[in-house]
């Protein structure tokens, strides 16, 4: 496993202002969202908006440095505009070149970041350069599907076959991890509307933590960490989360879910919590 590692996830809302401009709609605010959903259903048969109309309200990440030190963080609309969230996230790549890890990041998170960065007139060369600036990135960049500078776990675990794509929640549960703990992305608009920022960031961070745990298991499968190293990383994660009050529920659900597989039952020895 090449360190440092950055596991990340984003949460979004429909950008009503951009949607109204794109479709030429002149409607009251309370009618605009439903109109955009109706138009989307007509053109694609789904409520899920096109990538460019996803406005970022939170980016969460787990940073693991070369010494194995972990830091869980979130940039949200509580204190930042969307442009400020993007600037903070993108600045990480200006300073470092981590192994980037996501679930469906190639098809959703990174394209959203690309469009929204362009929307705000931001530069993100360190993330989107494919060798035009740094020639080494021609063969090892964050966009190429088969490079491992960005590991999209949904893609690699499906062996790059869309028919085999799985949901993060399902795989987390299957492997003995918490999953979404009863929540879904449908709550994001309510969290933002009601200014429930802790709920928003805890939810996004939960997806990051599930992705990290699955990444550890994938690294074990690939032989990039040994069984003993996997155990040590797991225990280090548990120890770190014990110092993160906003993830008390994640830790408690993980302990319960771990009892469902012979492998994860060892994550929580009786004396560990």
TrEMBL record:
CDD domains: DNA_polB_like1_exo. It comes from Acinetobacter silvestris. InterPro entries: 3'-5'_exonuclease_PolB-like, RNaseH-like_sf, RNaseH_sf. GO terms for molecular function: exonuclease activity; nucleic acid binding. This is 3'-5' exonuclease. The keyword DNA-binding does not apply. Residues 46-254 form the Predicted 3'-5' exonuclease PolB-like domain. Signal peptide: none annotated. It comes from the Bacteria. Keywords: Exonuclease, Hydrolase, Nuclease.
